[in-house]
Write the structure tokens for this entry.
Amino acid sequence: MTSIFELPDDLLAALIESFPCRDAQIRALATLLYPRAAPCRNLIIHGTEATGKSAVTLRLLEALSSASSSDDDAPLFNYAIVKSVECVTARHLYERVVGAVGDALQWESEGRPAVGRCETIAALTVELTKMLKYDQPQERDSRFVLVFDGIDRQREPPPTLLPALARLSEIIPNLTTIFILTAPSPSLLRVSSVPQLYFPPYTKSEYVTILSRPPYLPPSLPNTTPQETTDLWTRFTAAVHDALAKPASRSLPGLARSCAALWPRFTAPVAAGTHRAREFSKLLVAARAYFQDEAVLEPGITLAKGPISAGEKEARSSSSSSSKDLAALLPPTARLLLIAAYLASHNAPRHDQTIFSTWHSGRRRRRGGGGIAHRITKKAKHRKIARKLLGPSAFVLERMVAIYAATRQEWVNDENDGAENQPTVDGDVGMAIATLASLRLLVRVGGAGGAGDTMDRGGKWRVGVGWEVVRGVGRSMGVEVEEWLVE
């Protein structure tokens, strides 16, 4: 008795050879798409990043489409892929869908009427029905697959976008809609019995298997046979996975980049002739410093020229690198607001009028430790712990803006007035606050998960950076933040 399923086994064998450790997903996907197998109306493909979802889907669709065009006996098969992350709005998505389907069918090249505008899901349904339902040959089985890649990252999606797209296959019988995303919710499409295909993360053995095949397999080492190089590479990739799986190799591309960066250093003794390829333990001991140094994988993570301790490395990467990066990347207004936020978080509100009110009368403050904050420090009760070493306190947005308004003239136009590189305040405070909030340099506290209007004058915030970072940002503008702190 012959089976009702007719999968192109030779085609699937080539795909399985190209994508090792994904044979189950390839066969399941082919079964749910091929017209003479068990085609479905809607399909959800999900999994974490870099698990092969999009790559496997694209290659399978290309193979099925090529087979149908080269064999007259094969069923008609066509497809279109839309990358949702590239669409700015829902209307942009609709236009991209119609354009992709029209290109796949060569709609306008055959003298057919031009496709109309698609501003709503209803217009999209009309255009797709016209192209796929009424103008397609019906004498033999056919299938059109429409793929929405990364649909969970669609910008400004309407609340009914996915359920509406899932209903297209009910109107167009020969349509299969695929939704590729990371983690589906239980009521994503609001349609019962939607098959889901899961692409799980690769395991350690699967990582080693994939990396032991071209194009990841490295060339043979000097004075070493190809088999010895392959064996050494296999054990090396397993060691890299065990050492760097969590911080640097959470995906296949990340692990491949780590192995490519460490391999020349790991095999340097073999190339020099001091060790043999079979002496894996000795090579691992000789190269253990490379497995512990993040600068090998990310050369810009540290600024040290010589060997430094782990404590020094952490301090330099969290202070010098962070402050210099912020001073170079943030505009002047954002930097001034960040300093004002730090002062609002670490100075008590009762000192604001004493410190900042003198600027309204036009008087300038002398530097060198003779400021108002310094005089308050002498009168204040001695603290066992400096205030700048304590955690930041929450402050009202209006207070931070008031500190910024009271001090910006002093911080921007100091004794160096007229200097060529003196920064200027652009006045766009709202944009600067939104920038700091998006970078988590300012953190909104209170409310429903910290959500709300960023310009709410009564909203409470907390500075998200430490003393070393703020001091570096201040010095980049000629501001000594410590002179404005009340101990």
About this structure: The two ends are 89 Å apart (CA to CA). Confidence is low (pLDDT under 50) at residues 302-320, 359-370, 414-426. Residues 35 and 152 are 27 Å apart (CA to CA).
